[in-house]
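Following up on my earlier thread - several people asked me to post the actual chain instead of describing it. Fair enough. Here it is, all 797 residues.
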Amino acid sequence: MFKERSGYIGLFANIQYVMESHLRKRIYKRCEQYITRLCLSRSSIMLAGFALILCLFEICSNACADAPISLLLDDVVVTATKTERKIQDIPANVTVITRESIERRNILSLDDALRNQAGLSSIMAQDSTGSSRNIGLRGFRGQGRTQILLNGHPLNGGYNGIVDWSSLPIYNIERIEIVRGPYSALYGGTAMGGTIQIITHDPEKTSVYLKGIYGEDRTKAFHLHFGTRVWDRLSFSIGYEGRKTDGYIDQYIVKTLSSGTGSGGGSGGGSGSGGGGSPAAKLVTGAISTLTPTGYPAYIIGDKGDHLSENQGVTTQLSFDVSPSIVTKAFFMHQCSSNSYEQSHSYLFDPNGNAVWKGSLKFDPNQAGTMTLNEFSFISGEGEKSKNIYQFSFMHHINQDINYRLLTGYTDEYLNRYTLQSQNSTLTGGAGTLNETPSSSLHIEGDTFLALGKKHGITIGIGYFENNAEDNEWELSDWRYYNSRTKRLSLTEGNDSTVFAFIQDEYSIKDNILILAGVRYDYWQSKGKQIDANQCITHFGERNKDNYSPRLGISYHPWKKTQLRAMAGKAFRSPPIQALYNTSISTKQITKMNPDLEPEKTISWELGIDQELAYRTNISATYFENHITNMIYPRLIDSSTTPDIYLKENAGKGITRGVEFAVEHSITSGLLLWGNLTYQEAKITQNPANPASEGKRCPLVPWSMANVGMNFDKDSFHTSIAGQYTGKVYKEDNNSDYITGVFGGYDPYFILNAKFTYTPLKNLNLSLSVDNILDREYYEFNKAPGRSFFGEISYSY
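Reply from S.P.:
Thanks for posting it. Predicted structure:
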């Protein structure tokens, strides 16, 4: 043991010596070089950020050796084991986002709070009504593979697994716990890449909170929250949060030319066909030459106007201590959101200066290719959502060795609709379609913890989970109005349910060794039907699968400030109802249903170390691998149409593996530097349905991510600066969309955000936030926002 300890200390001593003697000058030089250039290459961003941390570490560590530090290693979390455990005892890579850290940043939507975390990707993806953030962990694309919980209840939508982050509450959150790795042994389907739990706050005294935000694109946000505790047994809180923005132009109209008189490809483009130019084509000006993401020549001919959105939410929470050992909680949330596009613009003009919206067009008199344009290309529908969330929990601590709890939750998304225009639609009206996709989810779970001595405990649980969803497609006489329905074109209904049971064993062999073992059994059933416009019914029949999800982890502390951890497990994800039974249609793509989809499965393992170094520094490093079978993804099957046609398929096999590294250094009690770096390889290894995708990177998964930042507090001033780098991602499974800097593509990017807060009075805060300080121009399919300023005032009592 002594030799091991001496070798370990010697190793870090050598590292310090190398920093002082050899690398310091190189670090200073590299830091200056890369920060000055501020270029977007992956190596420059990473080296600049980490060089800055190392430089400040070297400069300040000796001068501040006696300064206090606030570490998170003693934080107690519940998500990893369903029991209260300190982070330093859990055999997993865990992060806690506190209420204070959320207030430090410009958080307009709750998913903003999750960005800058190691191993977590936040990619803007497209849905039928616009765009939404896709949160994924460890190379798993999308929220359907990451379990999102609110107070222990699943939030992943029953229809497609998507979480509407924009309407979730922000202020009354106590903390957010991020647990990386496979957690189907506790949480079942969707917990493949990890679990993110949002835990709300129970007030301890009477409090009032008011906050107003105004900023770029006439963005307005308002928060109002009241909480109290009476009789020392009853806590009650109620809050309202609303946000509205006039938005900016994020969606362009991109068309390709045909060789003859046919129409060009749609947004994102495809090649036309035919021979010879059209003598009837009208000569116009104003088209902007560009490329499609796949490298085909195209033209930007207009935009769809400013992207408007509005979100509102009301929450109430009641907690009552029936006795010192019995606690009941009730929670209610109402959410609603809407989005649409303002007046679209054509960039094309005829020789008289009149805007051109349709016709057979050409851009050069010597040009052979033409474009047939219709007004519907400039139109974008609108959508809105409303849901209620009901939760109730009962917890009984019988004694220090036995406790049990009951959780019940119901989510009712009673309104989820969006409109689409037809090819004959005009700017002033015309036929269209309305899709309504209401859904609901029911969650019932009971679990018991039994302490079998001071070092041994078992958690046993059973439960039931059910999703119901339907999709109604209606014909509209006027695409602009929801209430202009004429007849129903189709009705799709789907249902799935899961009965589950789990057991988890926590055993401390010694004070410094914890073994965590568990297994969960899930029995999944699904059925659906479809009714067409002629009232013909197609039953897809009932399907069922069962699945065992084991997990084994070990946490070992060879020394007080060192944790070694390892974990292995299996996880699965049941196909969502949308993929099984509904063909989704948008202006960008048609994704066909596939009722024969199988559940995805993965075998995963990881190794990690958490180390507290001298000079108030924490580091964490983790290597992980996930071997996936039956991976579900949308495969492009026809790009010759507008929009493109995709099909949900099981891709055969895939693998995600990578390294997560994080460092945190507290120079003084008021100055904290932090950074993290993630490399992850996510690729399809076997896919008989589309061999061209084999060996390619999985869609919408970045290969590398890095974040670096600083928190500074001095008297009444508080500053937070954070930089985020996200590497290149692909939308297509064959990685053919390699072109960057064009609409419809996904660019690698680095953005820098900051928030400056001044507290002139004890309960009053004045803040200025600047997002994308460097004003980087990049695309996440749509164009991302440029430099944005926001002012904020908040008062708490």
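Confidence is low (pLDDT under 50) at residues 1-72, 260-278. That should answer part of your original question.
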